[in-house]
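ok trying this again, last paste got cut off
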Amino acid sequence: QCPIWIIPTELVDYNADVLKRLVLKQSRIWGWDTDSDWEYWLRERIEWVNTVVDRMVVACSDNPQGLNVQVEPYVSWALSRSKENDSDYGVKSESIEVLKNFDTVRVVDSSLPWSRRKIRLLNAAHTLLVELWISQDRKPMFVREIMEQASVKEQLREILYTEVKPTLDSTLMDIDAYVESTIERFCNPYLDHRLEAIAMGHETKIKTRVLPIIRDYEKLFGSPPTHISRWLKK
């Protein structure tokens, strides 16, 4: 019998492990942890799968085809089993391996490098573009439009290569290829990714996406990253 799969998609490190801990905590609050059948089912019959979903899906209320969203061609989905299996139980199923048959799905030992790559290269880049956008008097509407402004594309590429890449473990994956694909995705002429939408929760995004890069860069080189610091002061 295959277990039930729980595959969260929140952009949180080890999202399935976090969810599992929350469910166990709530079970204790409700007193369900005294039910051995419930405890067995929760630990033994569920495959908790950590994930990193990498694909931009944007709202598009004025789409002439009447669709509510636009989806970019790029997609990557990294899956890894929970590292928090209880020694007395533990998921023994190998059923997750079937997903290896899909080209865009990777079954990996740990989802953390994939999460770090996405947050620091793609999401932090979005946040830095919004920081630049906020400082402008004539604000473009879409990501692709701000990428068309003089030198923005090359400045962003320089940031990703020289100030973000050093904070990532490039031995685990091809960071250079991901940087180039990120630039290409931002320039997609058919994707109406609104900067105003990315700007929601901007201060929190600076703290969670950009400041960790600055801290790690300072640890490596003894000073803050020049280009990122300049963009944050604009």
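PB: full thing came through this time. The chain has nine helices and six strands.
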